[in-house]
Amino acid sequence: MTSPAPARSPFAAMNRFLIYVALIAAGCRPDPTASPGVFRAGASVRDITPSLGESYTDLNGNNRWEDDEPFTDPNGNMVFEPLWLANDQRRPALSVHDPLAASVVVFEAGGVRIGMVGLDSFGHGRQELQKIRQDPGFRSTRIDLLVLGSSHTHEGPDVLGIYGPSTLESGVDTLYLARVREEIIGALQEAVARLRPATLESEMVRTGLDTYQVDQRDPIIIDDRLAALRFRDRESGRVIATLLNWASHPEQVINGSSVSADFVGAWRTAQLALYPDAAPVFFQGALGGQIGSNNIAFSHEGVAYDRCGDCSYEKAGALGAILSRLTEQTLIAATPETPATIVHRSREVLLPVDNVGFRQLIEAGVLDRSLEPAGDETFLRSEMIYLQIGRVAMLSVPGELHPELAIGGYDG
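User: That's the sequence. What structure does it adopt?
Assistant: Structure tokens below.
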């Protein structure tokens, strides 16, 4: 074993800790079948791996399609129609390295039902969440609050629109987005059907500054807290779901041509090896300002992984295995509880849009968002929530929260 035991944090003794997620809130009628005062949990995992589109011949080996590079054209329309990967324009996917998933845990207490969805996605927009909560299938789950977090994998499809063949051409496959919505709703329905009396274990540790994370931009501030929640069947002790919150960009491979969940997928695989019937649910932490592990050197099972700009799937796999081991070490000291109530608050917020290019892309229809003018400024509407369950409290922040805003601090 090469990953060091996590240091116990002074935060672990606190009554609650924070999780930074993107979210949507949805109010539904109470479920008459729910048991007031009984804490219950259920979970599900669904595959959301995209289908590959048309292929091409990468003549210069840069993993980017150039106009003079030949492509397959089965429909004969003379238009190259691949699966566009996120994080850079003109980057078609040629293969699938590992699957993408939507992992769901639903829990309830005191007549309040919460659904949390962890997506292997570059970043799902609020408009997609609005479509989910308006769907009759979602309403049938009687979920009061739906929280969705994207892992921010850089090897997933373009789900925003800015990584297509050109600046003014969206890379979004709307059929894929519709399928993801269906899988999320199906997973939520399945999790609700599996609700069982449960216990909750929670703990937080410090993984160590500069151990597995690095801050690539000033100010150099890192939130190295790893928070883990585990839901167990109260009768059998079987693990229902494990929720992990940690901050790092999933970009061990940022210039490849394969679909991958990066280290998050490797963490999930390691967790499923331990608990085959459980749902591993990952929620991203304060990764803004380019918090990641590319430029961190570490060892795992006798193999040394160097600092790198564009690393490898092997390094992503090693990091995921280390995180799984840290998850287990973190929860060793956790004491089971059965929360009797759940508290949640939500509020819509207007975020000023100062980026002129961003506004132009929305106005051109490349980005599927709506702008709201107010006076001389332009805003995007988003949402934030506070959620408390037992000794755990979660605070959501849209986008890539910077650690200096999450935990404060100044590196000078």
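The radius of gyration is 21 Å.
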